[in-house]
Amino acid sequence: MKTTINKLSEHVGKTVKIGAWLSNKRSSGKIAFLQLRDGSGFVQGVVVKSEVGDEIFAKAKGLTQESSLYVTGMVKEDERSALGVELEVTDVEVLHQAVDYPITPKEHGTEFLMDHRHLWIRSKRQHAILKIRNEIIHAVNEFFYNNDFAKVDPPILTGSSAEGTTSLFHTKYFEEDAYLSQSGQLYMEAAAMALGKVYSFGPTFRAEKSKTRRHLIEFWMIEPEMAFVEHEESLEIQEQFISHIVQSVITRCENELKTLGRDISKLENVKAPFPRVSYDDAIKMLKEKGFDDIEWGDDFGAPHETAIAESFDKPVFITNYPKDIKAFYMKPDPNREDVVLCADLIAPEGYGEIIGGSQRIDDLALMEQRYEEHGLTDDAYKWYLELRKYGSVPHSGFGLGLERTVAWISGAEHVRETIPFPRLLNRLYP
């Protein structure tokens, strides 16, 4: 019976065949222990010379790291294994004998591993992180499907910026200038006026010359937009969304979290509702924590976000930032013109902002005023202005950075480990 490693526990006491790669091996006299992987998981195969004979045992002992093979054996229970089973090998068929595999069990530098990222993702730790990424993607789509959101795909090539910034990748679109999208938000607002509740899930690009552990040049964003939803309701949806993602990973990625040594107790507490701190109070908190230079009107950097998050054991919303440091489309607080109806969700344990969201301006005259203040051209943004001209409604939205979320939930130190092939300031290979 042919199967995969993640299904072995369903076949205890039976003889099965798996296709696998040899991630490592060790031998003790007349027994060889093969560490096997097949993409679905890792398992130990035990080869006993007295049971398989000289030829098969010699073949097993001669295997090199990352050789590919078919392995036949009896599935046996083993409490020491993360899967609860091991494979008592009866036959080995070598498909390809790898020679001089460059990533050995010894320590390697980060740059070396990044140069060999196409091979590094085979390792147990990287496998675990990418499996958690996959589960987060599944949980995202599951949450929105179950809550009647429609998935809409905005364009990647655009004629303008979503937030009026210059950190864009420029290209030619035949005879016109075009840019790689840094956000699908504006298009999602248009989609929300047609479909009510929508979300996008796609790549975005930001030409920021940043080398921090939280930044990538190419990353994936989840961007919901919701018609007839105001700021407070949006916050409630966000905390339900994050709670669903985290609890899904805890439930479905137990082995991967153990592989990474993740403290699951810190994740188990991530359930709605989340604490909320106004920008005004956040400034006071930072001054009390020794950030004497921070003043009202300043934006927060990574050290500020980390300091605020330290006071809480779950993600925290920082709400109502000053209007002048936020995007042109954010709706002013009706009770206070100098701040906007927005919130950043800060992850605990120093992982920083994972969500930025706001209620959007729905008043045509105010949006026209914003256009003038920010120097936005009618040609590039005419269609966006028309959303306020033809059936405008209160609406809100937010953006979740996938890689930062993976880093937080998996406990990865740097976002470069949370995407299969990261694009960094000085890295376009492999």
TrEMBL record:
Q: How does it assemble?
A: Homodimer.
Keyword Nucleotide-binding among record annotations: yes
- Which key words are in the record? Aminoacyl-tRNA synthetase, ATP-binding, Cytoplasm, Ligase, Nucleotide-binding, Protein biosynthesis
List the GO biological process terms: asparaginyl-tRNA aminoacylation
Matching entries from PANTHER family are given as: ASPARAGINE--TRNA LIGASE, MITOCHONDRIAL-RELATED, ASPARTYL/LYSYL-TRNA SYNTHETASE
Task: Show the catalytic activity.
Answer: tRNA(Asn) + L-asparagine + ATP = L-asparaginyl-tRNA(Asn) + AMP + diphosphate + H(+)
Q: Which gene encodes it?
A: asnC
Q: Which GO terms describe its molecular function?
A: asparagine-tRNA ligase activity; ATP binding; catalytic activity, acting on a protein; nucleic acid binding; transferase activity
Transmembrane residue ranges: none
Q: Which SUPFAM superfamilies match?
A: Class II aaRS and biotin synthetases, Nucleic acid-binding proteins
Record domain Aminoacyl-transfer RNA synthetases class-II family profile: where: 130-430
Q: Would you identify the family this protein belongs to, as annotated?
A: Belongs to the class-II aminoacyl-tRNA synthetase family.
Designated name of the protein: Asparagine--tRNA ligase
What subcellular compartments does it reside in?
Cytoplasm
An example Pfam family from this entry, by short name, is: tRNA_anti-codon
Q: What EC class does the entry list?
A: ligase
Q: Which EC number applies? A: 6.1.1.22
- Signal sequence annotation: none
Gene Ontology annotations for the cellular component aspect, listed alphabetically: cytoplasm
> Which InterPro entries is this protein grouped with?
Aa-tRNA-synt_II, aa-tRNA-synth_II, aa-tRNA-synth_II/BPL/LPL, Asn-tRNA-ligase, Asp/Asn-tRNA-synth_IIb, NA-bd_OB-fold, NA-bd_OB_tRNA
